Amino acid sequence: MALTQAALYGELTEELHLSWSEAELPERERTKHVHRLHPYLGKFVPQLVEALLDRYVKPGGRVLDPFAGSGTTLVQCLESGYDAVGLDIAAFNCLLMRVKTSPHDLFRLESDVRHVLGRQGRSRLRPRGYVQEWFAPEAAAELLHFRSILEDYEDADVLRVVLARAARSARLTAHFDLDFPLAPQREPYWCHKHRRTCAPVQTAGKFLSRYLLDTLERVKAFQRVRARGRAAVVHHADATDAVLEGSFDAIVTSPPYPGLIDYHEQHRYAYELLGLDDRRERELGAASRGTSRRAVEDYVNGISQVLRRHAASLAPGAPVLLVVNDRRDLYPDILERSGLRLVERLERHVNRRTGRRAGEYYESILVAVRET
Fold first, then answer.
1. Which of 93, 211, 233, 360 is most buried when burial is the number of CB atoms within 10 A of its CB?
2. Is 56 left (phi over 0), alpha (psi -120 to 50) or beta?
């Protein structure tokens, strides 16, 4: 008989509670305020970052996340009273992080959102390429029209995120396959999510309207809880050679896992619609590269290079906090190459970390410091 979540968590680290059952940490808390501005595979929950900051990082310090992804570390730092800096190679990730962490003029943002709601329509441009392939004609026309009016507003980046989120929902794909669609779904299909026959989405307008209002409310909610006087800086850069100014009181990050996720490809619709700079060839651990011996060695070299480079900017005794699923036992070598010494290792059970997944899933929190 499988263990209950309560029994399972009782066997894990008791000193610091880092594993939460669904009852303890429901989805609405895991995805509170701006954490749900846009879906993102592989992100950790903000409550984990909150616990790590509280235990290991001096109050009011400056935190670096060199693999910042969707910005969970940065957002939680702002909520918990820390300054933060985030690096990421993916342009869409940086756009999303800036929208989440920038201080917004809420009066202007609401005015923009209300105005855009009244301007929805359909473009006469003929869709081409990806847009033509992955969207029904009406949905494509609505998305292209929305894109055409973005620059009329000071909060254009917020609208870009709304457009990307609506495009994700409006693609010609099965409802249960939004994360990993391989080909457009053009005919009715049996939907495993809804347990009935469903038809592919034909329009995007309803998603644009819904996400405009949802985004506004989530940005407002975060503005109410973020600490005053704290800021986050986002750099669209390769963490292996990025140059940062100043020192840091901690590195808090969850590096990409080897061969698991293609971080650019998961947001392909955003890159196509928004014309974003695509640097996928510089991703570390991309799924497209697989897990061959060469691919894993490149991954180990890349992660080691990033950690060594940025650990040099840490204040004396400051921690490096890594959230990893190290089933290949790569991190002892990575830490050694990075000039880091492991001082503590904590284990946690994870709910819904990477979308569809069979079986139990665990990850480790590695607490390390620079060798002296």
1. 93
2. alpha
Contacts of 141 (CB under 8 A, 6+ apart): 122, 123, 124, 125, 127
> Could you tell me if 153 and 159 are in contact, meaning their C-beta atoms sit under 8 angstroms apart?
yes
d(C-alpha 162, C-alpha 109), whole Å: 13
Q: Which residues contact residue 342 at a Cβ distance below 8 angstroms, ignoring those fewer than 6 apart?
A: 332, 335, 366, 367, 368
Instruction: Name residues whose C-beta falls within 8 Å of residue 302's C-beta, 6 or more positions apart in sequence.
Output: 240, 284, 285
Residues 6+ apart with CB under 8 A from 52: 252, 321, 365
Q: Is 248 helix (H, G, I), strand (E, B) or coil?
A: strand
pLDDT tens figures, 189-229: 898 888 899 999 999 999 999 999 999 999 999 999 999 99
